[in-house]
């Protein structure tokens, strides 16, 4: 039922005439026990799903904001095992689909099969493993399928056409369209080629296409959201949470969907 929960959430967004909004937060930042409050706040604010980062010592794709959040979470003693156990403990209270974003190393250390089982038991809907190339996804997909977990693939602005097609066709749950060359982090400008890039991905994909990296204002959410099926916002959400500006988080989410009050 896990993957279906994500599909259902996208169908609801489409029916409402809005766009998907997926915030990224770091598990264990502020202590693992604060995660339930964050998840429930975001769910009540109307997000479509939540991308939950697992802190890792060598986060090659992460910009300064996410890296700092990861350092704080590691200092709190957060591990993949603890996060999965915690999620299993709160799963009755959580309706919103959860997507785990983890580098491959922690999954490998855990054991791919055991990890898939525990993620399934924790009620997770999907996985993003940014350093696992599509050619190697067979290492995990047989086990993920048994638990009905989606493996979400990333397309970047650097991907050649043939590769965009391959990744878009293979992706489950949604396609993650990276909208900048570089690492995560809030930015002011948006590439002018974004519209055609997102359209090309869409053309090959049988699942929604969500754009992420550098989205940091309600205007970005609306502008980029109008060119695809939704947006992912990480660094800005993390900074606003740290500053105690939950109302601004709410404004970002609201920009994605007219039905959110
Ligand atoms: O922080 P940003 O620029 O809003 O981008 C989202 C991003 O943080 C989140 O999806 C993410 C965090 N770490 C990643 C590593 C790879 C791909 C994606 C991610």
Main attributes?
261 residues; alpha/beta; TIM Barrel; 8-stranded parallel beta barrel; binds indole-3-glycerol phosphate; Trp_synthase_alpha_AS
List the helices and strands and how they pair.
Elements: H1 2-16, E1 20-26, H2 35-44, E2 50-53, H3 64-75, H4 80-90, E3 98-101, H5 104-110, H6 112-121, E4 126-128, H7 141-146, E5 150-155, H8 161-170, E6 175-178, H9 194-204, E7 209-212, H10 218-225, E8 230-233, H11 235-242, H12 246-254
Parallel strand pairs: 1-2, 1-8, 2-3, 3-4, 4-5, 5-6, 6-7, 7-8
Helix pairs in contact: 5-6, 8-9
The protein binds indole-3-glycerol phosphate.
Indole-3-glycerol phosphate binds at residues 24, 51, 53, 61-62, 66, 101, 130, 184-185, 212-215, 232-236.
Uncertain runs:
none
SS-based class: alpha/beta
CATH class category name: Alpha Beta
Query: Roughly what is the average pLDDT, rounded to an integer?
Result: 95
Number of domains: 1
Main β sheet profile: 8 strands, parallel, barrel
Name of the CATH superfamily: Aldolase class I
Strand percent estimate: 5-15%
Helix count equals 12
The Rg value, from CA coordinates, equals 17 Å
β-strand number: 8
Here the CATH topology equals TIM Barrel
From the N-terminal CA to the C-terminal CA, the straight-line distance is 29 Å
Bound molecules: indole-3-glycerol phosphate
Shape: globular
């Amino acid at each position: 039922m896990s993957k279906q929960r994500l599909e259902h959430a996208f169908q609801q967004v489409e029916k409402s005439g809005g766009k998907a909004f997926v915030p990224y937060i770091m598990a264990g930042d502020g202590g693992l026990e604060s995660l339930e409050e964050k998840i429930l706040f975001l769910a009540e604010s109307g997000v479509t799903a939540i991308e939950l980062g697992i802190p890792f010592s060598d986060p090659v794709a992460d910009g300064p904001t996410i890296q700092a959040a990861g350092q704080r979470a590691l200092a709190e003693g957060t591990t993949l095992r603890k996060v999965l156990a915690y999620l299993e403990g709160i799963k009755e209270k959580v309706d919103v689909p959860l997507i785990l974003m983890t580098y491959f190393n922690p999954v490998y250390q855990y054991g791919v099969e055991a990890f898939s089982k525990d993620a399934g038991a924790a009620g997770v809907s999907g996985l993003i493993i940014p350093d696992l190339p599509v050619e190697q996804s067979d290492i995990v997909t047989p086990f993920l399928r048994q638990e009905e977990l989606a493996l979400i693939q990333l397309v970047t602005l650097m991907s050649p056409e043939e590769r965009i097609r391959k990744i878009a066709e293979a992706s489950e749950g949604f396609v993650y369209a990276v909208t900048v060359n570089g690492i995560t982090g809030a930015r002011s400008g948006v590439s002018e080629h974004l519209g055609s890039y997102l359209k090309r991905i869409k053309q090959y994909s049988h699942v929604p296409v969500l754009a992420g990296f550098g989205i940091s204002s309600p205007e970005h959410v609306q502008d980029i959201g109008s060119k695809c099926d939704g947006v992912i916002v990480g660094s800005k959400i993390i900074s606003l949470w740290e500053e105690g500006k939950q109302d601004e988080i709410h404004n970002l989410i609201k920009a994605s969907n007219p039905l959110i009050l």
